[in-house]
Design brief:
binds aspartic acid, alpha/beta, globular, single chain, eight-stranded mixed beta sheet, binds magnesium ion, about 425 residues, binds adenosine-5'-diphosphate
Length: about 425
């Protein structure tokens, strides 16, 4: 008998029929003797709908109230799934994040889980009850409802699995595992039976939304056995999806590149013709950090005649704010610049693989493939297991396809 946490995403609970299908799978695991905790998202499209309602009332709603609204999506699904399980004759109880007591900090709309009180859940499980928990939400120490950021139900699932020391956390979604890239963009993409934790972390951080980055971080911190599978398979299916592994498997052929991620949520801001002197980077990045804006890539060009250009990327929804901060600093005379400019139509494409550690020349292969299609590269950054480029947003799908082909990812390590 095992303790399993299963998380079902929005599409997987997108209709009553699909909720019934989820109930059948959960009931099967229960019948087999396992203890099951189910974490569900809001029904497909619901979170967007709720947030749009708030935006109709005000262009700038308070984050605390946004959370109150958004959290209702998941509350509907837990009730529906519990009822569907009752219809199958199994004991089930639903809980909101606050009822479990998933304690978070108070960073509304992007809260972090601090602690989970798993007593109540354990009591139900011991009694043979299936526990259904609302994903994406928690509660701060004052009892305010919080949410964990888009895609946050993954993190709820993994955090519960960590707290309960579950044998496995299964993320059921609308694809049957982690692929070499988003199969909606590249139909030839190949499902991976396994992927290392480090690669999954890098793919998620570079924009693969199949797992929210924080869920992967949590899994790594508590070594949660994590698997991605399809919720659309038959409830009796024995498909094994993709397992996230914590050790490199010596016996397995390791591909040099495991996957390609892309992210359209990017924007670039540049300070042109700034003085090339010590401290200039700080006078630009300091105020951005103080405004709580995350920067990702940073590029400073070689200076000519004492001046240089300085660019960084930020999340697209912080683009206007970042531009505003720099313009204000320039006006206040904190640094001199010829101009502050930006572009919010850029995207980032990243190739990821632990095999990069022992292979050279991959960056050159990557830029060659992109050049072959006339795609201009605006910025490049590398880490031990990743090469990322910033390009014009309109070429993102083409770039992903070209790179997938250039690195022969459809073939797998044996064939390559
Ligand atoms: P859920 O609602 O179940 O949380 P998401 O839409 O958040 O599902 O994530 C699943 C989606 O992630 C897939 O439908 C797919 O389009 C996308 N995706 C992006 N990159 C990958 C990848 N490397 N492998 C699998 N799916 C990916
Ligand atoms: N319902 C939330 C969202 O749409 C959380 C999730 O689905 O993981 O982002
Ligand atoms: Mg998701």
């Amino acid at each position: 008998m095992a303790l399993i946490v299963q998380k079902y995403g929005g599409t997987s609970v997108g209709s009553i029929d699909r909720i019934r299908n989820v109930a059948r799978r959960v009931a099967r695991f229960h019948r087999e003797g396992h203890q099951v905790v189910v974490v569900v998202s809001a029904m497909a499209g619901e979170t967007n709908r709720l947030l749009a309602l708030a935006k109709e009332v005000s262009p700038n709603p308070e984050p605390r109230e946004l959370d109150v609204i958004a959290a209702t999506g998941e509350q509907v699904t837990i009730g529906l799934l519990a009822i569907a399980l009752h219809e199958l004759g199994v004991k089930a109880r639903s809980y909101t994040g606050g009822q479990v007591r998933i304690l978070t900090d108070n960073a509304h709309t992007k809260a972090r889980i601090l602690e989970i009180d798993e007593e109540r859940v354990r009591r139900d499980l011991a009694d043979g009850t299936i526990v259904v928990v609302a994903g994406f939400q928690g509660v701060d120490k004052h009892g305010n409802v919080t949410t964990l950021g888009r895609g946050g139900s993954d993190t709820s699932g993994v955090a519960l699995a960590a707290a309960l020391k579950a044998d496995e956390c299964q993320i059921y979604t609308d694809v049957d595992g982690v692929y070499t890239t988003d199969p909606r963009i590249v139909p030839e993409a190949r499902r991976l039976d396994r992927i290392t934790f480090e690669e999954m972390l890098e793919l998620a951080s570079q924009g693969s939304k199949v797992l929210q980055i924080r869920s992967v971080e949590f899994a790594g911190k508590y070594l949660v056995r994590l698997r991605v599978l399809s919720s659309f398979d038959d409830p009796d299916s024995t498909a094994t999806g993709t397992l996230i592994t914590y050790e490199e498997d010596e016996d397995m052929e390791q591909a040099i590149i495991s996957g390609i991620a892309f992210n359209r949520d990017e924007a670039k801001i540049s300070a042109m013709g700034v003085e090339d002197r010590p401290g200039i980077a700080y006078s630009i990045l300091g105020p951005i950090a103080e405004s709580n804006i995350d920067v990702d890539m940073i590029v400073q060009n070689i200076g000519a005649s004492g001046h240089t250009d300085f660019s960084s990327t930020v999340n697209r929804n912080e683009y206007q704010k970042a531009l505003g901060v720099l313009r204000e600093q320039k006006e206040k005379g904190r640094f001199e610049a010829r101009d502050i400019i930006g572009d919010n139509r850029i995207a980032k494409v990243s190739v990821v693989g632990i095999g990069m550690r022992s292979h050279v020349g991959l960056a050159s292969e990557m830029v060659k493939a992109l050049a072959g299609e006339g795609i201009n590269i605006q910025m490049i950054s590398t880490s031990e297991i990743k090469i990322a480029v910033v390009i014009d947003e309109k070429y993102v799908e083409l770039a992903v396809r070209v790179l997938h082909k250039a690195f022969e990812l459809e073939k797998g390590p044996e064939a390559a």
